[in-house]
Amino acid sequence: MKDVFASSVEYEKRGWSVIPVQKNGKIPIIEWKKYQEERADAPLLDIWFSDTDCNIGIVTGKISGITVIDIDGDLGNESMAKQKWNPPPTYTVKTPNGWHLYYQYHPGYKQGAGILPGIDIRNDGGFVVAPPSVINELHYEVIKDIEFSILPPVASLFGPGSHQKTKNVHNPTWVQKLLAEGTLEGNPGRNDTATRLAGYFRNKNVGIEETHQILTEFAHKCSPPMDLRELRATVESVYHYAIDVQNAKVTDEPSFEKIGNAYVYRWPDYGVVFSVDEVQGAKDGYHCEIEINAFPPGLAPISHGPAKFNLSATRTRSELARHLSKMIPLDWERMIDAVSKKTIILEREGEPFLDVSLLQETSQEQRWIASPFVFENQISVLFGDGATGKSLTALAILLSLETGYPFYPIEPTKKMRGLYLDWESDELEFVHRYRSILRGSEYKENPHCAYYRCTTTLKEMTRALIRKITQEKIDFVVIDSAVPACGSNPESAESVIAFLNSVRSLGVSTLILAHVPKNAVDPNKPFGSGFFDFIPRSLIRVQKHQEAGEDSLRLGFFHTKSNSGPLRKPFGVEVLFMHDTIKFVDREITDIPELAQKLSLKARIRLALFKGPHTVKELSEELGSSEATIRMALNRYVLDFEKNEEGQWFLRQKGG
Q1: Residue 463 falls within a domain, yes or no?
Q2: Quick one: pLDDT at residue 245?
Q3: Dihedral sign, CA of 52, 21, 177, 196?
Q4: Cβ distance 70 to 107 under 8 Å?
Q5: By CB neighbour count within 10 A (0-12 exposed, 13-18 middle, 19+ buried), where does 564 fall?
C-alpha cells in the first residue's frame, strides 16, 4: 500500500522509529526489539512497505521522543468522566476503538501501566499502530494535527498514587516462571496457560496491547513455540469476556482433544479446562480421575483435583458443581454435564476401525530405523548374558536416533525423540555412561536424553507414561530390562502378555533389553515365557569376549528372529574404554574368533553360510565338527537351512 509506504517515510523524517505490523492487525511482522534503540532507514522502509500489504507501527519512548496515552473505548471514556480527567490538548489519532494522544517523551510514564481502567501508556518498550493502518475496515486517522504537548508529572494529571499503584506490581512466582520458561504443549497447554496469564494481567488492569507484548516472549519460549495469531486470539478472548463471564450461561460446546489416554475439554472464553483420565467402566457407571483448572478473566484462578469422580452419577455431578460455584460462580452444572456425557459416549464408541485402502504403504526395509535393533512402531528385543554391553548399546542407539549422528556402528534412518526407562541402575551411572559416550565421539553438542528411574512395573506406570510420552513427543523408548519391568513371574504367559500389551499401548518404537536363561535348551531366545520370543518383531542376541585386565570389550550380534524381512548378517563391535571415554568400533565377526568359537553350532553354521552355499563336508572342515553332527543340525533347523539341487546348503533368510 503506497500510502503506508509514504507515511513510513514521513514518520522516519520526523525522527520516529517505524516498524511493519501485520495486515488488519496489531502484531509486528518482524523482530522489533532492536528498533527500540535504532531507527530503520529509508532503504529498509522501502523493503518493508513498498510491496507489502501491511499496517504501520511507531515505536514509542525515547527512540521516537513520543509518549502516548491510549484511551480504550467506552471503558476509557467512563474513567475520564468519573475522574473528571482533562488531558492537555495535543496531537490526536482516532483508533478503531478510541484515541491515541501523542505527547513529548516523558520518562516518568511507565509503559503499559493501567493508570485508570481503559487508559494505558505507550512509552519505552512499546509501540502504537499508526495512520493510515486499517483493522476490520476501521481506519486510524489523525483528527487533531497540532504540536505535541508536554505532559505534567503523573500525580498532577491522574491524582496521587494512581500510577505508582500499578507500576510496581510484583509478579508472583508462577507468572515469572512461565514468562521466563514458557510451557510444553499439553502441559496443561499453551492456550490454557496463555489464557491464565492474560487473565492475570487483565485483572491487574494492564492494557490488551501491553499484555500481548508481554506474552509474545512467553509464546516464543513455549515448546513448540506458540503461533502469535493464536496468542492474539487468546488475549482478545480474555479481554472480550472479562466483564461478566461469571454470570454468563454456557451455551457453546467445548473444544476437545485426546492426550494419551486423557480426554481434555476446554472453554477458552471462560478460561476453563477439564482433564478426564483413568476412565473405567463399573456396575454403577463410568469412574475416572478428573482435574479442573479455571482462570476466568479478572478472577483468581482455581484448581480442583485430580480427584475420583463418577461420570454417570447425577448426584455426584451436582455436588461437584456446588463445590466449584463456591469458589467461582460459573455455569459449572452445564460444563460438568457436557464433559460427562461426551466422555461416556467416547468410551462406549472406542477407537474407530482403520480403512486400510486409504493408508499409504511403506516397505518393510524403510521401516527399519536402526537396523537390526529398532523397527518403527514395533517391539524389538536385544538379549544376552549379564555385562555384555546391552545398556551401553541401547544408550548409544538412543543418542544416534536423537541426533542422526552414528554413535554406534549403525546408520539411523531418521531422528526420534527418545526415553530411557531404567529398572537396573540409577541416574548417576547413566549420566557417566552418557558423558563417556559423548567424549568418545566427535559430536560436539549436548544432545537431549530423557531418563526415568523406575521403581514399579511397567503396567502400573503405563497411563502416566502415555501422558508424558504424548506431552513430550517421545517416539522411541528403551526398557532396561524385561524381567523387573514385567514384574512377578516372567515365565508366565499371562504376565508377559500383559507386559507386552502395556509396551504396545505406549504407541512408540521400543527396544527391550533382556537376559538369556541359564542352561537353556535354545540360547537364542530371551529368558521368560515364550511370548518374549513370539510377540516382538525382531530379536538380536549379543555375546561378548573380554580377557581379564583388558580395556576393551568385543561384542558379537546375531539376528535370531525377524518378522519384517530377512535376518541381518552377524556383525561385531569393539567397545573401547579410555580415560572416562567410551568409543564403539565396527568389527567383522570373523575378526573375533573367540566369539565365533563360543557360538552354538546353529549360529556357527549360519555364519559360515552367510559367505555362500556349503556342502556338509565343507561345513565340517570349516567348523571342526563331524559331518554327522553338521547334518543333524541342518536337518533339525529346517526353517533356517535349505539344500539346493547341487547338494549345497544355504540360508533361507540370508539378509544383509
Answers
A1: yes
A2: 52
A3: negative
A4: no
A5: middle
Residues 586 and 638 in one domain: no
Identify whether the C-beta of residue 610 lies closer than 8 Å to the C-beta of residue 569.
yes
Do 299 and 388 fall into the same domain? no
> Is 356 part of a structural domain of the chain?
no
Pairwise CA distance, residues 51 & 32, whole Å? 19
pLDDT lower than 70: segments of the chain: 1-2, 51-52, 112-115, 155-171, 184-188, 203-205, 207, 239-249, 297-300, 519-523, 598-599, 653-656
pLDDT in tens, 67-124: 999 888 777 777 777 777 777 889 999 998 889 999 999 988 887 655 677 788 888 8
In whole angstroms, what is the distance from residue 75 CA to residue 290 CA? 38
> How many Å apart are CA 291 and CA 468, to the nearest integer?
16
Of 563, 304, 582, residue with least CA distance to 441 = 582
Query: Are 454 and 316 contained in the same domain?
Result: no
DSSP class of residue 61 equals B
Q: Is 123 part of any domain?
A: yes
Helix segments in 353-492, DSSP class H: 390-403, 427-439, 458-471, 482-486
Q: How far apart are the C-alpha atoms of 175 and 653, rounded to whole Å? A: 60
What domain range includes position 419? 367-596
289 found inside a domain: yes
The closest alpha carbon to 144, from 78, 87, 59, belongs to 87
pLDDT in tens, 427-452: 999 999 999 999 999 898 889 899 99
